[in-house]
Write a structure and sequence with these properties.
Number of helices: 9
Structural class: alpha/beta
Largest sheet: 5 strands, mixed
Order of helices and strands: HHEHEEEHEHHHHH
Helix content: 25-40%
């Protein structure tokens, strides 16, 4: 009798173990997911200020300026629990072990079109405007971060670059405190160069993927303005710039097709030409497709 009792106990224990395993076959992956998520939370929730520094080879504006530390804001990730759908079925959570944080592949530069940093911060901390950016660089060089690099800010709006129709999901947005009618300050540009140095290194962002808002939304936007020093940025490896001496484009060169290959949305060709010139021919911002413009398009097209 005692042997039968022991056998029964073992069988029950085995049944419980089997039942336990069958009811949650994803226990190991759930554990792995939580551990990995914990590590990623540490990554995106780091509150330590990062010192922005230009490199020894950085070409700076004429005026030297002190670069302030970068202010970081703490962000958190949350795990979504199962949700009951309208048809009475609930969603189910089963953790995968194969995932990581999304990596930005573009940097989009804007000017705020407002008159102060305080005004911009008020706009970006109010629900109604539905706009934000990862960073705001003040006229005095102060850098404020408002969205973690790994998260999606609402800075690009309805924008297209090449085949990418959701720029916000693939980019970091940088707003410069400038109303669009005046030059950018040296302190501001020095801080921007330092910030770009950090971001390009951190995320291995391609040189040609540092763009202006007007590049990705030519029919809607004209920022950053004609005062923005794209040539200086390109000299530091942030974006590309046409050669001093332009090779003439071939007689059969298709400028519209080249603009599309570069990345511009040419559904409104006049707007695309104006946006291109706002970036690369800032002294002649119009929609005229003259010889200089065609040759410049050809030059940038060859650098892709």
């Amino acid at each position: 009798m005692k042997q039968i009792t022991l056998n029964t106990f073992y069988l029950l224990t085995l049944a419980i173990i089997i039942a336990s395993c069958s009811s949650n076959p994803y226990k190991a992956s759930n554990k792995s997911y939580k551990e990995q998520l914990h590590d990623y939370k540490k990554t995106i929730s780091n509150t330590e200020a990062a010192k922005l520094e230009t490199s020894s080879t950085t070409i700076l504006p004429n005026t030297e300026a002190v670069i302030d530390p970068l202010s970081l804001y703490k962000d958190t990730l949350s795990i979504k629990t199962p949700v009951a759908l309208n048809n009475g079925i609930s969603t189910e959570w089963i953790s995968t072990v194969n995932f990581n944080l999304r990596k930005p592949n573009f940097i989009i530069i804007h000017h705020t079109a407002q008159d102060s940093l305080a005004q911009t911060l008020k706009t970006f901390t109010t629900t109604k405007p539905q706009v934000s950016a990862h960073y705001v660089v003040a006229d005095d060089g102060r850098v404020v971060q408002m969205v973690n690099d790994y998260l999606r800010a609402w800075h690009g709006g309805n924008a297209i670059w090449g085949k990418n129709t959701d720029i916000n999901s693939a980019s970091i947005g940088i707003e410069l405190d400038n109303n669009g009618t005046e030059p950018f300050s040296d302190k501001q540009i020095i801080s921007l160069l330092a910030l770009l140095t950090k971001l390009k290194k951190d995320y291995n962002i391609p040189t040609q993927n540092i763009l202006g808002h007007s590049d990705i939304a030519p029919s809607r936007k004209v920022d950053p303005s004609k005062y923005f020093p794209w040539k200086l940025l390109a000299s530091n490896g942030f974006g590309i710039w046409p050669d001093e001496i332009l090779e003439p484009a071939p007689a059969n060169f298709n400028a519209e097709l080249a603009l599309r290959i570069i990345g511009y949305n040419t559904k409104n060709l006049a707007a695309a030409i104006s946006a291109f010139k706002l970036h690369y021919i800032q002294t002649e911002v119009d929609s005229v497709l003259d010889e200089k413009t065609i040759n410049t398009i050809y030059n940038i097209y060859k650098k892709q």
